[in-house]
Write a structure and sequence with these properties.
12 strands; single chain; 4-stranded antiparallel beta sheet; 8-stranded antiparallel beta sheet; mainly beta; Jelly Rolls
């Protein structure tokens, strides 16, 4: 079900269901859907380097779908020690890549090199707020499932690492 050039109709034409489904429903499905997820509450990790599912950032992916994903977050640490690590979990057989950038306090913009979607990334951070932007492309195979963002402290430290409210994820089916 891909894009079909819409039919030209004349005034007074009554569109049968097949025409409506092909030229309206299927075309709308081919350009969407789009997910917009806003983090509704702060999420805190303290003294743990074990990756955990983010409370908000996940979405369903069907068989053979491809998605582009953008995650924009503000992360804060009370101590410079922990750092941050993250990855994505995807259905079996799914492939893809991610890359990004981080604006670390008292530092320049740091780029995050392109790597496979399920590789765990480590990001050193200073004390205070860090802006994190991650882009990804996920191409699914023959198993439907969930695309899930996971994160933790890079080094378990008895200090709060917080992913803040109003961080957001945008995802669009390609």
């Amino acid at each position: 079900m891909g894009w079909t050039d819409p039919a030209t109709v004349t005034v007074g034409t009554v569109a049968p269901a097949a025409l409506w489904n092909t030229h309206v429903r299927d075309n709308l499905n081919s350009i969407g859907p789009k997910f917009q997820i806003r983090k509704a509450a702060d999420e805190t990790v303290n003294n743990s380097s074990t990756l955990q599912n983010d409370d908000h950032f996940s979405f369903a992916i069907a068989v053979s779908e491809a998605w582009v994903v953008q995650l924009h977050a503000v992360v804060s640490q009370a101590s410079a020690t922990p750092g941050l690590k993250w990855t994505w979990t995807v259905p079996a057989g799914a492939t893809g890549h991610m890359w990004g950038a981080a604006h670390v306090p008292a530092s320049t913009l740091q780029t995050i090199a392109r790597t496979t979607i399920t590789t765990t990334q480590n990001q050193g951070m200073g004390t205070g707020d860090t802006g994190l932007s991650i882009w990804a492309v996920v191409v699914n195979s023959s198993t439907a499932g969930t695309v899930q963002f996971q994160w933790a402290q890079q080094t378990a430290t008895a200090a709060n690492t917080i992913l803040y409210t109003n961080s957001f994820l945008l995802a669009h089916r390609l």
